[in-house]
């Protein structure tokens, strides 16, 4: 689990995120994002890799999924996703109109787990 | 929506691959999902965190790797000065879909060692709660995780992962050895077994639900 770093020339996180050093508070490991629209040619290489993951995808990905797929540190991906949400390239999934406006997440999780056994 | 555990699925090798050839395969979150939640599975090395996540996950569990600097408390970035060492911490995670596909519940395995505290603050933020796995052959290995959770005020339940041949002790002795609060649930599970693992998660979630009701009452007083 813990060993010596594999890459002595590891790119510093703030280089990968083009200077941004903090993630948005609402962008967590489990936060699911979907692709919106917008040109990607002005984005940095890592941000473009994130956007390429969504090409043709029918669904979203959580920050953790992106970190695993691209083999990037989750802390870096949180910041990349924050920037891409600010620029409108990514967005949070929005509930359908007939969805309940709000529901109790914890109770739904409990009900969901119980229904699986 | 009907989701089967990933390990039961005949098509589990047929995951959607990322567009770029070098990316590792990832299963997309169904478009029906509008909310997500997170439960952290913690515990010492080799206690069965990854096994439990693999038992209940509906997608093939994935791994993230975060480089962290060691022996550098108070230093906030990776400047890489020669006398500092960086280790890579691996975190496995899985996912369950529920509520007719509206909710994705992520399960993250977090290493319990206290030297990973910087990671905890970031990764446990927003978690519903934590399931601490323990092994009766090495109960001390749980102490770091329990200390981190107590320090961060994250509610948790403890599940003894019943390894074949591991000694069993009366509950009172286990509670004392782990220094558990009387209200903290203590249960047993076989992390290799899906139903058993789900029961441990249900025990945690029931406690979280009661815990929150109690907290609400306290605020109103």
Indicate the percent of residues in helices of chain B. Answer: 25-40%
Q: Which regions of chain A are unreliable across 5 or more consecutive residues at pLDDT < 50? A: none
- CATH class of chain B equals Alpha Beta
Low-confidence spans of chain B: 9-20
Mean pLDDT reading of chain A: 83
Beta strand count of chain B: 7
Counted up, domains of chain B total 1
Mass-distribution shape of chain B: globular
Trace the largest sheet of chain A across and list its strands.
2-1-3
Largest interface: A-B, 58 and 64 residues
Number of domains of chain A: 1
Largest sheet of chain B: 7 strands, mixed
Percent of residues in beta strands of chain A? 5-15%
Taking Cα atoms only, what radius of gyration of chain A do you get, to the nearest Å?
17 Å
What's the arrangement of strands in the largest beta sheet of chain B? Answer: 2-3-4-1-5-6-7
Number of strands of chain A: 3
Total helical segments of chain B: 5
Q: Percentage of helical residues of chain A? A: 25-40%
Oligomerization status of the protein chains: heterodimer
First and last CA, distance of chain A: 32 Å
Organism (chain A): Streptomyces tendae
InterPro entries (chain A): DUF742 (IPR007995), WH-like_DNA-bd_sf (IPR036388), WH_DNA-bd_sf (IPR036390)
Protein name (chain A): DUF742 domain-containing protein
